[in-house]
Structure formats: C-alpha cells, structure tokens
Amino acid sequence: MENNEMKALFDRFRDETFSSLPTEAAKDAAIAAFIFGFAKL
Amino acid sequence: MSQETYQTRLDRIKKAVKREELPDRVPALFQYFGWIIEYYGYSLADYYRDDPAIAPECYRKGMEEFGFDGAFNLNNVSSYKSTEAMGGGMYAVTERGIQVSNIATAEVMSENEYPLLTKDFIGYLRDYTMPRRFSKLAGGNTDEALQALKTAQTEKLKFLSVVAPGWGQIEKAGCPIMWHAGVLTHPVDFLLDYLRDFKGITLDLRRRPQEVLDAMAVIQDYLMKNVYPAFKADPDCKGPFWPTHLACFLNRKQFEKFYFPYFNETLTYCIDRKIYSGLILEGNWEAYFDTMQDIPDNNYLVSTMEFGDFKNFKARMGKKFTVCGGLPVSTLALASREDCVDQVKKILDDCAPGGGFILSADKALLNAGDAKGENMKAVMETLELYGKY
Asked: What is the CATH number of domain B3-78+170-386?
C-alpha cells in the first residue's frame, strides 16, 4: 500500500464527516485530533 | 447527598491543594473507579458495554458508606466500540475492565522511522501507525475503511454523550472529581505507550538518542499547541491528570536528559496559567528530587508517588506539590484492620502537619481485590479521628 492511500482515505473522511466545520483549518485540526486520539487507543 | 456536603468536601480539598490555610481535616481522595463498581457487585464490562449509569450509583453509595472526600480522577474511560469498529486497538473490554489486549500492538513503529515521525508527526501516525493498529484501515482507501472511520467517530460521540453526563451525576452524588479534565503526556511516554513499547524505547534511548530527542520535540510541540490550550484555570482546583511512565526506569543522567526538561516545561506551563494538575509519579522518584528542585514553587500541583518515603517526599517536594498518597494498596488489600489504622496514624504523623497533604492509596484501586471494604472503613474512621487540624 502506498502511503498516499491513507492520506486519500482520511481526506475523504475529513470531507464527509467534518464538512460542517467553518474553515479548512478547523477541518484539518479536527482530523488531526481524531488521528492523535486514536493513536493512543 | 446535599450540595452543601459536596461543597464542604470540595472546600476541604481546595484548602489542601492551595496550601494557604489549613482545612478542617486531611482530605481523602482515591482513584477507585474499578474498585467501587466491583465492590457494589457490578463488573466493569457491565459499565463499558451496557450501562454507564452504574457509575453514578456506585459513587453515591460509596460516598455514603465510606465518606470519601472525592475522586482523584476517573480511570480507564474509553470508547472501545470505536476501536472495535476499526478492527483493532490496544485495548479490550473484559470482566476486569479495559485491559491491554495484545502488548505487541503497542509497538507499531519501527526503530528506523523516527525521521518520518519528526518530519510530519500527524501524517506519520495517519500513514504508518493507524493501518498497523487497526486492521480495517490496512487496505488503504477503500469504502470499508471509510465506513470504519465513520463508525468509529459515531461510536465515540455516542459514548461521550452517555458517559460525560454520568460524570456530572457522580458529582451530583456528592463526589468532587478533581483531575479528570484531560491528560498531560510526556512525549517520551507517548513513544513508549503508543509507538515503541518498553523494550523499543529503552533501546532507542541508547542507540539513537538524538532521533528520540528530535521526535520528542515535535510531539511536545503538538501537545503544547493543540492539546494543552484546552486546559483552563479552575477556581475549584480541578484540572488535568498526568500519569508518568518511563521516568522511574531511567538512571539520573537519562532522567535529566530525556525526561526532566519537558516534564518541567509542561509543569511550568500549567503553573504559569494557574492550571491545577494531578500527577501520578509511577515508581520511586526520590533519586530525582535534587533535579526536581528546579520546578517552580507553586500552589497548583498535586502529586502521588507509588513507592518511597512519604515523609521525605513531603519534606523535599512539599513546595512543588501537595503530596497525595501514603497508603499502600497491599495494606488495603491484605493487611488487618488494625494494621490499616496504624498505617493511617503513621502517615498522618509524617505528612499532615502544616497542611498540603491528601490521604490516598499509592496506586489506583482497579478491582475489588485491591482493598477490603472493612479496611477502607477503618481508614476513613481513623482519618476522621486523627486527621483533624
């Protein structure tokens, strides 16, 4: 698997799940928090 | 349980934490989430799988039966259905609570990947460790993987919507929950706990120390910019919790190089912002007390220590921390009622004078076997008799 596969997956997740957030920065922060949070589980 | 009773307990704790005036007596705070649930006949699996309302009921009963002053924090709170949705994770729910399901899964980073982590921390976690830890993500950009992520997020929100109100209900039952507002993390503990495991990180400290330091810098930067700003000054002295892990396995030179700098930076961040924090110093930190004199004197930090001389702990570190602990779990679990009474009297003699002391166990009470009910009653009765100022 290429690493950009995971980026593409999380980009889709970001766009479909956090679309209501007002800015791109807010969406990026939300997806980073998701990744950071689940990295601990 | 009246609001006044809650307030009386909270005021007692606050005075012990702030160390500006003496409370009416030494407060008692335990980490007893698993213990209290099992003591009242439930299993932790009941709580996590089916009925989060068990917890407030158990805490209410516990406050009435034992008269604790509150909870140091709640522990092992996690949405296991989220990780299950993604096909993995480090933890599993059993009858004994959330357990590490497979220690091998803690090592999801290889030793030669430090430069990747340092270059792009979140990107590294996304691209390398997430698919290794969660099997449903391993196939890459598939519809199944996308659905797994969505389900994980949904289950996480569902869990929080049920569990978080339960925390409020525990407080309404008369139990202040003190250091449960989030988690402070040392970056080397992040590497240990979630990426390299114990064997990996201890080898890395010797074989590739600069790469570890570089990785720690980017992890600390993420924490300081993205996690810690959520923690605020709270007039009730509540705040985040900090379990320390690797420090007690380091020699003093390693502690000074790898642990103390970010430990002190994070504590100073909290002190400067009046963020009250509850620390768990795992192991025995007495060998580091000289180094730790560089922590600013303050009235915002509370700390337990698992092993060591508590009289020395308070004497050496009492201007840095409100000292919390003094009761070995082994005593609570195995000793006689009379031994518990003697232990409480001794720790009060050693640590109560002058304030700045909270009675607690030296470790979290994870299961019913960690303390006999009659011993906990003996502790609280003895505290009531001999712990008054």
From this structure: 3.20.20.210
